Amino acid sequence: MTDTYPMRINKYLAHKNLCTRREADTLISAGKVLINGKPAKLGDKVQETDKVDVRFRVKKYRYFAYNKPQGIITHSPDEDEHDIRQSIPLVGVFPIGRLDKDSKGLIILTDDGRITDKLLNPDYTHEKEYIVSTREELPSHFKTKMEAGVNIEGYVTKPAVVKVLSPKKFSIVLTEGKKHQIRRMVAFFGLATASLERVRIMNIRLSGLKEGAHRPILGQELATFLKSLGF
Asked: Would you name the residues annotated as active-site residues?
């Protein structure tokens, strides 16, 4: 985001990673935000040289790694489907991003709305690693072409890192996330995807986590993750 001043106070607080814009509005309405010593009002703007104080107790956010099984929906299930919130005992957290119904693997769950844009906005580049099996054998030129980028319905994918693990299996590291991107990339070669599993998001790994299980992200793992996002 460009640092353009004067800046609306809620945008300023979100830009400083203090809270989301919605949380900022709540704090402002409660009289807990001061601009140059005076209570801020909704819609106020600040200059870069203004002194902004926020009087709130720091919320302790929660972060979890969840191994989504195949068949579980990330968001908005139909009547005969189950989503992540119905499949775990955690309350008050939500998934960051999506993993389609037919895919499995790592999803980050949190109650920290600040990290949503940092992880999903295409302006930022974060590595995500997948293990993919195909129904047919990979062609000899598969690795080279996949890494360079392929045309999926008019869009050329960004460079990736590919390792061929067996005649019908490979790993791929992406820094973007178009809808059904890997399946569409595989289809470019006339292949069908048999299974797709996400095993890593940035420094967060499944690390033997069983399907349907979750674990808290803590300590140095969490510190590295948040630092990479700018927190």
From this structure: 100
